[in-house]
Design goal:
About 35% of the residues lie in helices and about 25% in strands. The protein has about 325 residues and is an alpha+beta fold. The chain has a single domain, classed as ATP-grasp fold, B domain (D-amino Acid Aminotransferase, Chain A, domain 1, 2-Layer Sandwich). Strand 1 and strand 2 form a beta hairpin. The chain is globular, with a radius of gyration of 20 Å.
Length: about 325
């Protein structure tokens, strides 16, 4: 762990905060990823080292983009025969070339446990006496962090920048016109199958896949495919399986190997998304990054070996074939 901490400390000065790629047009920027549309019908998706919580960008974590990009590519390849996805190739440790899709304006969240710290979490709703969540009836008598009777799909609206996502039922989602009934009928078995596969793989690696979110896009020929990321510490909660039962009995929070650890750190300091967030000091950034790396190594079965080049220089070199070519075009 000493070597790892030294390596992560070195990575503090090697973070990619934004991808400035002249010649590829204006990117579409999200909280973490930046997308460049290419004229050959593909898209370059760059995963920065930015970290967000409570819908706010808080700073960067060392090697976070490399972990997320590499782990998503690994999952896309592992599950391609089960559910189609948008991955084409990986030209850089922090970028992948993907099929250009139109995202559905919904996040498809699958939950297997009664947990969470945000004001919109399933546990917060349950703790104040509500027994229906996104159209699913919940039994009485459950404790925080216990398994739900079965995994449930709880779609979430995609909020505008600075606002909070809202979990809604199927009926409300259809009434809002965000997606069609046919789209939901296609997507639900896709994401539930993907979640079950994820739970099996995680269980084999000593992890519990607690919940996750999926994004779905429609290709130009009308197919629905999984996009963005799959089963990463940003999009998912992972708990260490070996200590889960003992900690549950003791009334302690499970050991989180994901962004939830950072959320709890913020909550302990009185921050839940309003006002100015606490500054992430270097020790917090290293600790959070170490948890991301641990998930990568547990799932892939190989040591994480980060690229130590200055990330923007490396990225520009690795995507140079796209710059100035007839494949590059501005994002609409």
């Amino acid at each position: 762990m000493t070597v790892r901490r030294e390596l992560l400390a070195r990575g503090l000065g090697l973070t990619l905060e934004t991808a400035d790629l002249p010649g590829l047009g204006t990117p579409q920027r999200g909280k973490v990823r930046e997308g460049y549309r290419l004229t050959d019908g593909t898209r370059l998706l760059v995963t920065t080292d930015r970290v967000s919580a409570f819908d706010r960008v808080l700073g960067t974590l060392p090697f976070k983009g490399q972990v997320l990009n590499g782990l998503s590519a690994w999952w896309f390849r592992q599950t391609a025969s089960l559910v189609p996805n948008h991955l084409i190739d990986v030209p850089d440790p922090q970028a992948m070339r993907v099929i250009d899709c139109t995202p559905l304006p919904v996040e498809f969240v699958v939950r297997a446990y009664l947990t969470g710290v945000t004001s919109t979490s399933i546990w917060t709703h349950y703790a104040r006496g509500e027994r229906e969540f996104c159209g699913h009836r919940l039994p009485d008598g459950l404790r925080k962090n216990e398994p739900l009777p079965r995994p449930i799909l709880t779609p979430s609206t995609k909020a505008s920048h600075g606002a909070h996502d809202v979990s809604v039922s199927r009926e409300r989602l259809l009434a809002a016109g965000a997606v069609t009934s046919d789209e939901l009928d296609q997507v639900e078995p896709m994401v539930l199958a993907l979640f079950e596969q994820g739970r099996r793989v995680c269980a084999e690696r000593g992890l519990l896949l607690v919940d996750t979110k999926y994004e779905i896009g429609r290709t130009t020929d009308g197919r629905l495919v999984v996009i963005d990321e799959v089963h990463t510490p940003d999009s998912s909660r992972f708990w260490r399986a070996s200590t889960y039962e003992d900690r549950l009995r003791a009334g302690l929070e499970p050991e989180s190997l994901d962004k939830e650890w950072l959320r709890r750190w913020l909550v302990e300091r009185g921050y839940r998304g309003e006002g100015e967030p606490p500054r992430l000091n270097d020790e917090v950034r290293i600790e959070a990054a170490g948890r991301y790396v641990e998930v990568f190594e547990a799932l892939t079965g190989r040591p994480f070996e980060p690229d130590l080049e200055p990330p923007l220089e490396r990225l520009r070199r690795n995507v140079a074939s796209l710059v100035g070519s007839d494949r590059a075009g501005p994002v609409a």
